[in-house]
Amino acid sequence: MQRVAVVGSGPGGLVVSRYLKQEGFEPVIFDQNERIGGQWAATPGTSGVWPSMRTNTSRIMTSFSDLRHEPGTATYPSNQQMLAYLTRYATESDLLPHLQLGTRVEEITRDGDGWKVKTRKKDGVVNEEIFPKVVIASGRYSRPSIPAVPGLDTFSGKGGVSHTYEYRNLKWSADWKILIAGCGISALEIAGDLAMLGVSRVVSSSRKQRYVILKLIAGAPAEHVGLTRFGALAAETFPMEDVGRMFKDFVVSHCGSPEDYGARKPPANIFEAGVALSQHFLPLVAEGRIHVKPWITDVNGREVRFEDGTSEEFDAILFGTGFPLHLPFLGSDILAALDIEGHFADLFQFTFHPQLPGLAFVGMMELQGPYFPVLELQARWIAYTWSGVVPEVPAETMEEGIRRTRSMRDRSPMVPMNHAAVGFARLAGVEPSLDERPELARALLFGPLSPVSFRLSGKDSLPNATERAAEDARAFGAVPNPHLTPMQQMQLQGLAKAKGDPAFSRFAENLSAPK
């Protein structure tokens, strides 16, 4: 049985180990922490989870296809529930014997046709071992970034300067004035958390205002109705400006535009502006409990000046300004091949590099939407490729893909979850067939891309996947019945016309025909 080193025991490391084990490999899972879970372990220094933090995607979309959350779990599980879920997943997948916890991976270098993995245990014991294959699943969000701001080192507020990654350590009091800089999910969620907890003044500052998607849209989690397979197919088919217009129309019609709430007006192009997910941020702006400012120009003591010419004094500054890729344990030749720059690395579909056979990466993309379904599909593609279930992607194809993505490094690194899920499903040979299950067509096209919906066909299909996928689609009212609405019929017909695929056109006509 071929041994595979897996770096990290978070969701990505666990799910890739589960599929590697099924495919006949022996995973050896290294983690520097004393317990599994990655970020969800909430270990000080290696996790940005704060005590009140919950998932920002539903329990259905924050799980793997083999294991549901316990009955009674809230729509958005707590971080404690997520840790319990991952522990249960590792136990039921029989991964506990494969764990080497409290073991930091210090260096990975090429050794002939394999990879030398150097580790150090908590007691200082160093070990080196050769593995024919290695999976890097160490997490995407481990090195917080604070931008250079003139005078920032002079800030004298009692709470100091820190990153939202360290929010759990901020010992604030109700009379404080706190500035949160950034417009990503964590920045908006923490601004809302502080405002609702009663901090005297909360100010949100950003370079540009993003569009904000509410976590719940008419009772349904946003990703159940907004990140669909239809959306992924449309993005492949229509011009980018049309895709952006349709996406913006969806966001604004369901959630409003930020300036309607009293926030700043975002750029007209939604891809230029970006999007973030937060249920409370915009309503709290409308209530005057969060105040919005443009970006910071400079800092002098407690005083912070902004691009609109105004200034305020603050007790603390929190930067929610992202995480560049940080893989310090990789050898110099690996890093040279990857050419890591900020948020980007030269990887084919965020996974393989033609010059690094036997090395794979999981979870290194920045996703817009839930990670768990995508991580599972990426894990299946890796395991199926290495076991021969699906053919390896030719080196020239990978090189062309890397060249294409390298040319887009000036764009936002965010990848919509539905695009990634459909892409990985195709590579793993498990994209569900619409023709085979017309009764699920609305669910599969306009419903959530739930993990079990990718167990309908191909390797590892499940006998009860049809019923479970339909149940997941009905949850929260996202797909109340199997019949397309008139709007969905029109959208499907428009897509079929644009695709110019006779088989898809027949499918669309049959689906839209009067019943």
Describe the secondary-structure layout:
Blueprint: E1 3-7, H1 11-22, E2 26-31, H2 79-92, E3 99-101, E4 103-111, E5 114-121, E6 126-131, E7 133-136, E8 160-163, E9 177-181, H3 185-197, E10 201-205, E11 211-213, E12 216-217, E13 220-221, H4 222-226, H5 229-237, H6 240-255, H7 258-261, H8 270-273, E14 275-277, H9 281-286, E15 291-293, E16 296-300, E17 303-306, E18 311-313, E19 316-319, H10 332-338, E20 359-361, E21 366-368, H11 372-387, H12 395-406, E22 414-416, H13 417-428, H14 441-446, H15 465-474, H16 486-499, H17 502-512
Parallel strand pairs: 1-2, 1-7, 2-3, 7-20, 8-19, 9-10, 9-19, 10-15, 11-14, 21-22
Antiparallel strand pairs: 4-5, 5-6, 12-13, 16-17, 17-18
Helix pairs in contact: 1-11, 5-16, 11-13, 16-17
Q: Biggest β-sheet, characterized?
A: 5 strands, parallel
Please count the beta strands (DSSP E, at least 2 residues each): 22
The assigned CATH architecture of the largest domain is 3-Layer(bba) Sandwich
Average pLDDT confidence is 95
Could you name the CATH class of the largest domain? Alpha Beta
The low-confidence parts are none
